[in-house]
Design brief:
With 462 residues, the protein is mostly helical. It has 16 helices and no strands. The protein folds into 2 domains: 216 residues, no CATH class; 210 residues, no CATH class.
């Protein structure tokens, strides 16, 4: 009876953390949706420019998000130890590295014209895309600051702060898009390029909101975040390297996760517009569904990190299977929902019956991907809470690029196994890669838990 109560309590705690994190993720997705709708109403040319610009910007932005994800387990473990100075130092170091890295990444988006020409992007779209990328590049420094602050709030178990900041950013994004795209209140009409500047303004608003919320929260370690007091400590090489050893693998992992879909899209572009459109439907719906396990994975990072900081090994043994069980249950429900309602899902995106039929066939693969994808991302979340990021990164590199992509290309375009050319082969390759990654990561989780069991540094407290 007591065991049932403890597991129920853990499920409630994880879901209470996951809810605000999911809403925060939804606000980020909604900003992209607003950009697409408003640019499309201005002109089809500007919509194409925003779509291409977003596909170039997003992997860079994900790398920055992954890098700053290191703040969450660092703060969670310090919070578990009751180390206010450690919390403050982790957030401030994350802010310094985020600002620096965001600034260094900006020039990458300023010189993309040769890349777009290599991709055979329409000549009339390139100038608009280039202006869009210049405008949105200014979101990277403030984005680095925001994700450090967000990681601090999440690590302290206060996910509602990032949810409020996300809602503020979405509101600002809608207003800024309206003013800058269409040229209202005497401002010049920038078209699609205005979306880039609107995003930069929105991210700055989220950063400011998050900073104010943390400062006023009176949580341990959140005071004087922008003070120059003890600033020299932030420049200690060993602490910077320690942060980068944890954060860089996370950034590379997210970049790998995103870029493989970009490469697949380029490969199947030669199969015709109907195939590309159907694949885009499947890909877009997958990205929406991904927010569910990803939010739970972040909650697991916080819970695991906090528990390790507290030295509560028995609770750690309960959190891990409970979290994976929640992930598996949610993935099964999502899988069944997609399988049952795939015709209705396809109809939401297009009225073209040919594209709908092909999209329904691809959504069957999307459904099957849900279970291994949920286990993969949540296993990664557990390991992230343990500050174990380098080995999971290597697992993802090997499985995605060494197994999934070659197999997908062989099945989808190479005629491997007598399969007809089509995107289905790439989804089979992705599914295979995820299953193999699950085996690696779950094994790593078990070994990591055993390592903590054998460590004398962990106090057996319940």
């Amino acid at each position: 009876m007591r065991s049932f109560f403890l597991i129920t309590h853990e499920i409630t705690t994880l879901l209470r953390l996951t809810g605000p994190l999911l809403l925060a993720q939804l606000t980020q997705t909604a900003m992209g949706f607003v950009d697409t709708v408003m640019a499309g109403r201005y002109s089809a040319l500007d919509l194409a420019a925003v779509a291409i610009g977003s596909s170039i910007f997003f992997p860079v932005y994900l790398f920055l998000i992954g890098l700053q994800s290191a703040v969450t387990p660092m703060v969670a473990q310090a919070h578990g130890r009751g180390d206010g100075a450690g919390i403050n130092g982790s957030i401030r170091l994350g802010m310094l590295i985020g600002l620096t890295m965001g600034t260094l990444l900006m020039p990458l988006l300023w010189h993309c014209i040769p890349f777009m020409e290599w991709l055979d992007v329409s000549a009339e779209v390139i100038p608009i895309t280039n202006r869009y990328l210049y405008g949105i590049s200014w979101s990277l420094p403030s984005g680095g600051l925001f994700f450090a602050l967000k990681g601090g709030g999440d690590g302290l178990g206060k996910a509602r702060l990032s949810m409020v900041a996300g809602c503020c950013g979405l509101s600002v994004n809608i207003v800024a898009n309206s003013l800058l795209i269409y040229g209202k209140l005497g401002l010049p009409a920038l078209g699609g390029a205005g979306c880039g500047w609107a995003t930069s303004i929105s991210v700055a608003a989220m950063m400011t909101t998050m900073a104010l919320l943390l400062q006023r929260s009176r949580l341990s370690g959140t005071d004087h975040l922008f003070s120059l007091q003890n600033a020299k400590r932030l420049f200690r090489i060993n602490e910077v390297f320690s942060f980068l050893r944890l954060g860089l693998p996370l950034g590379v992992t997210l970049f790998i996760d995103c870029s493989i879909f970009t490469v697949i899209a380029l490969f199947i572009a030669k199969l015709g517009p109907d195939v590309v459109a159907a694949h885009q439907i499947a890909l877009n719906f997958t990205s929406i569904m991904y927010m569910l396990p990803y939010s739970l994975a972040t909650a697991l990072t916080v819970r695991v990190g906090y528990t390790i900081g507290r030295g509560r090994l028995q609770r750690l043994q309960r959190i891990v299977p409970t979290g994976l069980g929640l992930a598996l249950s949610g993935a099964v429900l999502t899988c069944l929902t997609i399988l049952i309602f795939s015709p209705q899902i396809a109809a939401l995106y297009t009225n073209d019956r040919t594209i709908q039929t092909l999209a329904v066939s691809l959504l069957a693969y999307v459904a099957m991907v849900q279970i291994p994808d949920a286990l993969q991302v949540n296993s990664g979340g557990i390991l992230r809470g343990c500050k174990d990021t380098r080995v999971p990164m290597l697992f993802m590199m090997v499985t995605y690029w060494g197994i999934g992509l070659p197999l997908g290309y062989g099945l989808g375009l190479g005629g491997l196994g007598g399969m007809e050319p089509g995107p289905q082969g790439f989804w089979i390759g992705l599914l295979t890669a995820l299953i193999i990654a699950d085996l690696f990561l779950l094994t790593r989780v078990v070994k990591t838990i055993r390592k903590f069991q054998q460590s004398k540094k962990i106090r057996l407290i319940e």
